[in-house]
Amino acid sequence: MGSRTFYIETFGCQMNERDSETISALLAQEGLEPSDDPKTADIIILNTCAVRESAEAKVWSRLGKLHALRRGNKPVFVLAGCMAQLPETLDRLKKKVPYVNVVSSPGNIHKIPELARRAGPGQNAKLLTAVSPPRISAARDESTQILPEGLPRMNIPGVSAFVTIMYGCDNFCSYCIVPFVRGPQVSRLPEDVIREARDLVKRGYKEITLLGQNVNAFGLDSGSPGTGGMGFAGLLKELNRIDGLHRIRYFTSHPRDFTKEMVQAVASCEKVCEHFHLPVQSGSDRILKAMNRGYTKSQYLDLTGYITETVPGASITTDIIIGFPGETEEDFQETLDVVRRVRFDGAFTFIFSPRKGTAAAKMKGQIPRSEKSERLQRLVDVQSEITLRRNKDMVGEQVEILVEERDPKDPNLWKGRTRTNKMVLAEAGPDSSLKGSLALVEIREAGIWYLKGQVKSVLVD
Ligand code: SAH
Ligand code: SF4
Ligand code: F3S
């Protein structure tokens, strides 16, 4: 008999990717092997996202397809991640999806191996759940969703790794489901973060990406023990001292909490990359207020101006939501104005999706789908032109990339990212072995999604 295997699919953000590494490592500890084949796996895990309706729809459809693929003895199906924390998900599973055996929310993933063991495979078995108490408001409550320290992570040799620095979110932006499904903000202790980063460097990683819903509020938790006074700028400075670590990134920043001191820390810490992902969401003060974002258009422009002055060569990217309830053409024009003024290197653009339980889902003035799509298209057109222009400005420059892998389609090309987080395909000949190197590349060609260039020298093997 072959060994037992598990198959995992991850939806949503980097937080979930990081959690999937832990789930995989926990199952591997139990003697299960990771597998790419859902048809033969003994356990199938979907680590899900609830941020937009489309994210949930993807999971439901995938679940149906995976189930249909199966022959003979059914696997144990595990639904993990953010959808697992929603009462509507549990209702639907119970009523319509009898083959899901285990449900586990983000703060409970360490319980998956035990639940999967207890859950014998098959239809109509009792649904085993590990979810936290529901969080219903911004008030502090019992719904902390933090994982114990010391959980394992998959030992895959790699170049870049995620490090969670905080769990949950306290912001309650009016459109967002995350605080409900991930619980209140709880920062990890700086020493735990630093230990994890050191350990990753020992395993050969050159870059780490710090993860949190609002990394700038690191240490500023309203109820948990806190970090002994260390804030985000302090954490960057500590991590910057780790020998053998070459790059530090972080996601996501909140414009309200990104202080000048933090911008200065980015400027002074040579390992911290010159990339600012700073979701603006909207350029209209009225809409920003309704979104509960805590800054105005002019404050946002002041911050991005300060970043550009203080951190030479910085790139700035953003997230934008189109069609928030009540958004008029004038509001939309304000958003376009921010896009044109900041000249973002890139933007993730989303159509507002009402999420049950959030304040915005109940607001008056919901915008028809066609109007949202039309605005989105106009926004994408403006931003694409700016992105292309900015990338083209780089032609002729020499930049450092951290090489992640060989391009699967062309053995002469190596894929890596600049410190400003732009994807580069760099030519170096088929005999070279650049994976994990820091290389100096001359940019020769620019598109919207990537740059092309020639490797000039290897800076660090
Ligand atoms: N904590 C991060 C990211 C949260 S989710 C932050 O504050 O920026 C990632 C992005 O999804 C958000 O920045 C927002 O642009 C988008 N988003 C969140 N809820 C949404 C909703 N209900 N509809 C459409 N987009 C949404
Ligand atoms: Fe959602 Fe706002 Fe928290 Fe980001 S900061 S996760 S958008 S509530
Ligand atoms: Fe989605 Fe949860 Fe991340 S809702 S965006 S996977 S925090």
Description:
This protein has about 450 residues and is of the alpha/beta class. It has three domains: about 5-130, Rossmann fold (3-Layer(aba) Sandwich); about 160-390, tm_1862 like domain (pyruvate-formate lyase- activating enzyme, Alpha-Beta Horseshoe); about 400-460, Beta Barrel (OB fold (Dihydrolipoamide Acetyltransferase, E2P)). It has helices at about 15-30, 55-70, 85-95, 110-120, 180, 190-200, 230-240, 260-270, 285-290, 295-310, 330-340, 370-390, and strands at about 5-10, 35, 45-50, 75-80, 100-105, 130, 160-165, 165, 185, 205-210, 245-250, 275, 315-320, 345-350, 400-405, 415-420, 425, 440-445, 450-460. The strands form five sheets. Strands 2-1-3-4-5-6 form a six-stranded parallel beta sheet, with helices on both faces. A hairpin with a 4-residue loop joins strand 18 and strand 19 (about 450-460). The mean pLDDT is about 95. Iron/sulfur cluster (SF4) binds near residues 171, 172 and 214.
Quick recap:
Helix content is 31%, strand content 22%. With 461 residues, the chain is an alpha/beta fold.
Q: What is the assigned CATH homologous superfamily of the largest domain?
A: tm_1862 like domain
Helical proportion, percent range: 25-40%
Name the beta content range: 15-25%
Query: In CATH, what is the class of the largest domain?
Result: Alpha Beta
Distance between the termini: 42 Å
In total, how many beta strands? 19
Estimate the global geometry from the Cα principal axes. Answer: globular
- The radius of gyration over CA amounts to 23 Å
Overall domain count:
3
Main sheet summary:
6 strands, parallel
The CATH architecture category of the largest domain equals: Alpha-Beta Horseshoe
Derived structural class: alpha/beta
List of distinct ligands in this structure: S-adenosyl-L-homocysteine, iron/sulfur cluster, FE3-S4 cluster
Query: Taking all residues together, what is the mean pLDDT?
Result: 94
State the strand order across the main sheet: 2-1-3-4-5-6
